[in-house]
Design brief:
With 382 residues, the protein is α/β, with parallel strands linked by helices. The protein has eleven helices and 17 strands. The structure holds pyridoxal-5'-phosphate.
């Protein structure tokens, strides 16, 4: 049997990983500033994370949600403490798309309404509703088409206001990334998020903060939406939550009440996933990784801003993007093959940095030296 060929892949096989480094099957070492797509939060194969999972594996890996699972209660308490949303309620699932799917569904249960507001360049996942609120027709099959989604321009307060004035009574939820990831590292304005909050309050809609990529401490605050100083009604999370172990969730504000059987999952919140997620939060707290994300992120942004050729350096903490002009279009490829550094991208010309929150300053310095070297080689070839 062949693999179903849905991804363009780099010709490299990674067999080992530690901290911010990975190694291929030939023993070559790479600096990982991509974090396996923003997934590696505390660093690859962190010893505490490995130990927590191993110890749990020896006890019990899985049993269904029909029994008490104290690890889920422990995880909810820890997540409440580290995120500062102690009065929220946690529902666990397995992926970012599933988290968004459940959030959108729960919002509709709560309001009894159907319409959703989403934004240009959004990415929320591949399942039915998640892809319907994603602004990329290539990911949507005919069966995913729906009249329930209204797309508005990102960061346009007047358009949002006008839409609520026209359709307010029908709007179930607004779903927004605090920083758009796949869309190219576009930061939601604090005032736009505050406007979203006040319009949702005025019209009784649910504010869903997609924090799958921009959450879990990556920006220096637990949720990047926190920069706006207002709370969302539902936060969705995945990626960094398990540091590579598949675990995801939504946290739901106290005024939204659960009802038996409306949401559910077989694997979500299993013992092993909870152990991995607890290990991540313990390390984020113990090693002060949000502070590190601010410090190393600032260094990277300052240095990148001083490099001629790179444009629109943007982002927060360790979620950074910049535009690469046409004459440097091979930069990402050359960083990988010449300098052995993984970075992310966003079409058509954005390089994205999504490293572990434990990225060391000296690794960031190495990256800056490497990118300068590659830019000067490319410039000489012009
Ligand atoms: C903002 C955002 N939401 C949702 C998703 C979907 O997550 P998953 O691939 O785990 O379903 C992603 C994945 O890249 C994402 O960046």
């Amino acid at each position: 049997m062949n693999l179903f060929d849905v991804y363009p892949i780099n010709d490299v096989t990674i067999v080992k990983a530690k901290g911010s480094y990975v190694w291929d099957d030939k023993g070559e070492q790479y600096l990982d500033l991509y974090g396996g797509h923003a997934v590696i939060s505390i660093g690859h194969t962190h010893p505490h994370w490995v130990k927590r999972i191993e110890e749990q594996l020896e006890k019990i890996a899985f049993y269904s949600n029909s029994i008490k699972i104290p690890l889920q209660v422990e995880l909810a308490a820890k997540l409440g403490k580290v995120s500062g949303k102690e009065d929220y309620q946690l529902f666990l699932c397995n992926s970012g798309a599933e988290a968004n799917e459940n959030a959108l569904k729960q919002a509709s249960f709560h309001t009894g309404r159907k319409k959703i507001i989403a934004f240009s360049k959004s990415f929320h996942g591949r399942t039915s509703l998640a892809v319907a609120v994603t602004d990329n027709k290539n990911y949507s099959a005919p069966v995913n088409e729906t009249d329930n989604v209204i797309f508005l321009p990102f960061n346009d307060e007047d358009a949002l206001q006008a839409c609520f004035e026209k359709n307010g009574k029908e709007i179930s939820s607004v779903i927004i990334e605090g920083i758009q990831g796949v869309g190219g590292i576009n930061v939601a304005d604090d005032s736009f998020l505050r406007k979203t909050r006040s319009l949702c309050d005025e019209y009784g809609a649910v504010y869903i903060a997609d924090s799958v990529q921009c959450g879990y401490g990556r920006t220096g605050k637990f949720f990047s939406h926190d920069f706006a100083g207002v709370n969302a009604d539902i936060y969705t999370m995945a990626k960094g939550m398990g540091n590579g172990f598949p675990v995801a969730g939504i946290i739901v504000a106290p005024h939204i009440k659960p009802k038996h059987f409306q949401l559910g999952t077989t694997f979500g919140g299993n013992h092993l996933a909870c152990a991995a997620a607890l290990a991540v939060l313990e390390i984020i707290e113990e090693e002060k990784l949000m502070g590190n994300a601010v410090m190393v992120g600032k260094y990277l942004k300052d240095e990148l801003s001083s490099i001629p050729g790179l444009q629109n350096i943007r982002g927060r903490g360790l979620m950074i993007g910049f535009d690469v002009p046409e004459e440097l279009k091979d930069l990402k490829k050359n960083l990988l093959w010449n300098q052995k550094i993984f970075t992310g991208e966003a079409k058509p010309n954005v390089i994205r940095l999504l490293p572990s929150l434990a990225l060391k300053k000296r690794d960031a310095e190495q990256f800056i030296d490497s990118i300068k070297e590659e830019i000067s080689i490319l410039s000489e070839q012009q």
